[in-house]
């Protein structure tokens, strides 16, 4: 533990890597929600380890609970027409855990909340006095609609110096209610906002569009391109 | 429909993917305005599907109408001198559709409005009380100048909690007038601003410049480079 | 001219591409200051046209004068130790031209002003009431020091709705004084700020650092890496 | 010196490259803290010099002292499960030096301070009146805990026009105390904030996640992907 701790230039004893906890060590391999659906045979393999699942959550560990944020990219599918469209939407995955001892958190009873692009939009525009709340029903439109309810709230501290980030999960099927509340400093929230702003175009899939053409069609058919009238006016 | 809906962690019944609509399904292949001019033989093909047209619009579906945003990259052409210059300017393409039923939108009668870099500049600096309006004439400088007029306006809600995004198209050639108005929440507008800020350097083509040299000329001719005086003072 | 003009969805007759002007056409090849020192044999050539010089200035054409902005990347050199260091600093190159007729600008008598990273820092933090001024002496530290003086000023309009961007060049060697002043709208300035913020890490060379390791050292020597103590505490 | 100086379009005699100093020249090779652990055999080598250590610090040289900022990327390690996790955290490395003469700084007695992601979050949200202070103990959790104390403070100038950036290092083992204080202009601080905001997702390792999937798994198994239910609801 010593060795790892020395790698963490942290000014506060409250900040510790999940990996520090010996009880968690074996489960780090499970901590791969962010890229759980990537395959081992993708085309970037030749460039090194980029074909592997990468786990780099931003984690905030506090006395009673912890949560982490990690971008979860969209998946795409190719239509018969050759067009690639979004299959599953991207999100920022939040994972909450209860503290179960000194620097120990309960990975088994973790709860998830996936922020959509628009919910990320709410988060990144919050001012110091603003609050927001999101409601998710994982069984929406199924026969179990309304049986599980999740709500995430972000509320400012009384002194405007940070926020409380809280998740409540009510599961009527299991007859359980689970709550987490994590105080977040202004600095930690700034990291969340900057990282989420960075990730937003990626979870929307826009990076796929902007990367695509930039090495591609340049001048291959300049004549044809010249003949293209403004797209706006076409049907 | 059930399966797809469960993939959408949405807190509101108003948000639905275009793909959910069975009547739209067959037309998703047409929904490729953003990359309609990329070719199938570009040099990124070896890296996977990046050679295909990618469609990842940010869509806002409301009761009476919907619109989507998608970056439309510039095209380039190579001059005899070897310099690559912008051929057709990039834009953020907006597509508006009328609602024609429960979660159904009329793709056939869609209208387009392509935001230029400077118009994107207006959008991303709007404060909660600001409004803006853009006028386009697709036939500008042709014999039909003034026959078709498009205006896009973005106006704040009375309570400063979001905006109305409206498009009006007056076509004197067809003797038609078409109007769309879509209420946009603060969170949705934040996504629009962040995504447009991300896309702006790409629609300007600046990503081509910054990507170019960064893996390129480094130290190939250090001596020559050292002799280069400050570019500013050269003619 | 018609064809090109129809490609420009511009709401104002003041915005026109340099390429529209027939008198400029032949000189577009000269308009390559931004990447004038890239070589034709760089390693990206296999990816398409990225080895060529790319010109994609953001240009603001007004009645009496015009200017354009374009990122000018740093060059690097490799030391005997194997470390790559910055050789010539990056900048945002501004080029000013006088109007010499309807939509014609005088490329021959253009003047340049290269914004350093810190000057870009001034520009991107300007509020609507702020102004700034930069002074350059191209002959600084030579025997001609003080003979040529360039000053760039950015001053807000009286109504806070945009800025005047002005360049003055006093050349005592040639006994000349040249002045340009271009009114810039709030939207145009927003494009300048967003594009310059995007370009800033690139002209600093930080993109070279962040791109480098991200496909590189991952896990090649996990044991060794684990033994590395915090860099901060090393000498 | 003349030649190099002419490459610096600086408006102030206070800004000078480290490389200008002949006494530093031979030590530039040591100035590679930012990428000191990259290997010479990484997979990007074929693309040019990107396999080499790149040094591109943002340096602020003032009369009594100087400091530089440079991103220090995280290192990763691959678990047996195939998942790649962060091994050593990334940071923004600050290096302080005392002035020891006209444009000369003492590289031998430099002191380091590595800003964590959360400390970067503090820096990038600072308003013109805000201040912050960070404390590091390099020997934290070892038998030498408390023997060396480093504190970095950023405090606004009395006139709100910039900041003082100060580092104090108290070493009880060597019985020394070392202090540096560097005045920073608003423009220089804007560069620091913009560059740190750019670097933040990279030092968190999020760029590894967003780069990964974007050329990868697209549509390789569209059927399988379609069957994947929302990650949020899975255990």
From TrEMBL, chains A, B, C, D:
GO biological process: defense response; regulation of DNA-templated transcription
Example GO molecular function: single-stranded DNA binding
Tagged with keyword Transit peptide: yes
Keywords noted in UniProt: Transit peptide
InterPro entries per UniProt: ssDNA-bd_transcriptional_reg (IPR009044), Whirly (IPR013742)
Pfam families tied to this protein: Whirly
Domain of life (superkingdom): Eukaryota
Keyword Transit peptide recorded: yes
Family: Belongs to the Whirly family.
Protein name: Transcription factor
Native species: Clitoria ternatea
């Amino acid at each position: 533990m010593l060795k790892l701790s020395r790698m963490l230039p942290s000014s506060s004893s409250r900040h510790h890597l999940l990996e520090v906890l010996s009880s968690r060590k074996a489960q780090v391999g499970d901590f791969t929600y962010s890229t759980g659906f990537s395959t081992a045979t993708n085309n970037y393999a030749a460039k090194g380890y980029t074909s592997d699942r990468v786990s780099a959550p931003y984690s905030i560990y506090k006395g009673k609970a912890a949560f982490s944020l990690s971008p979860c990219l969209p998946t795409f599918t190719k239509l018969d027409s050759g067009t690639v469209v979004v299959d599953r939407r991207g999100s920022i995955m939040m994972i909450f855990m209860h503290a179960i001892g000194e620097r120990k958190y309960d990975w088994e009873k973790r709860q998830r909340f996936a922020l959509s692009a628009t919910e990320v939009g709410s988060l990144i525009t919050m001012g110091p006095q603003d609050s927001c709340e999101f409601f998710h029903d994982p069984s929406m439109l199924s026969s179990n609609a309304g049986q599980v309810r999740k709500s995430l709230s972000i509320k400012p501290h009384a002194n405007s110096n940070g926020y409380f980030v809280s998740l409540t999960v009510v599961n009527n099927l299991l007859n359980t209610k689970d709550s987490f509340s994590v105080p977040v400093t202004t600095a930690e929230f700034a990291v969340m906002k900057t990282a989420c702003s960075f990730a937003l175009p990626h979870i929307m899939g826009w990076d796929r569009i902007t990367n695509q053409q930039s090495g591609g069609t340049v001048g291959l058919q300049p004549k044809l391109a010249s003949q293209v009238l403004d797209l706006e006016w076409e049907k």
